[in-house]
Amino acid sequence: MWYAGRRLCVVWLILAAILGGAVAVSAAKATEGRVLDRVAARVNNEIITENELLVAAFGHARRTEGSLPGTMPDVRAVLQSMIDERLLAQAAREEIKEIPEEAITNRVEAIVKDQRAPFPTEKAFRAKIEEQGWDLESFKAYLREQEIRTYLIQAALARRAQARMTDQDEKAYVEELKRKGESLVQYRLRQILVAQPAQPTAAEAAQARQRMLGILEEVRKGVPFEQLARERSDDKATRASDGDLGWIAEKDLKPPILEAVRSLEKGQTSNPVPTEKGIHLFQLIRKRTVRDLLFEKRLEEARKTWVGELRRRAQIKILLPQLAE
What we know:
This protein is α+β, with helices and mostly antiparallel strands and 325 residues long. The chain has twelve helices and nine strands.
């Protein structure tokens, strides 16, 4: 889904807090007789709660009425970012009239499935949600609202970015990238590594090849690549992120790796690639061309311009004194 590539980070932090033991974001929730949530800011006719802010800033919400650890500049910056998102979503609702309901539903179900995965049973998963003040339906409703907000913002920004792109713009951007010595193509890859010594013995090399062939066979049988990256890869740095290597410029890929991934389509897996670290298997998550890179640049420009316009006419009030400018 095109809009899923630019997720709002606050959504994932809130989800992590909900299922990781933090207080659910709810203005009405109280524990041990203490109201846990206050209004941090009002953005036109919407509010941002203190717990939402804390979860976004620190990954957890407070459990007592203690003062907000928030004279810190980074908390102020997070709050300003959340204000920007609310302004954009409010304005985007006026422009984007059609919501892809099926796509939104599929995204919500995918998120719930991902959050459900660490729990041994469905009962345990629901118990954890209920412990944090939700039932499954209210949890899904919350996720749905986050997904709709993300979709609306990205759809409206995409319209603005597209209006500022021409063939001449693309040609000029190619020349700009060349002058800077930057790549015209970038790859987002997942990796599974079977490690071996820099100068392996015949037995070590054979053992590594056999392991990789076994992993490749599992991929071909339909075992998710990200699952195998978590469970079988020797690359400790990327196991926790399902083998995700992030975006890599074409010029930064070693020739054997570039040769292996250059012709891949999205979701396809490479043949095994030997390097000095061992044997690698790659999956292409996405590839960005010059037009993609220019589009993302235009998105950021459109976002900055639009936020500036919205802020000039918005009614914004920060209600926590320690966060006031």
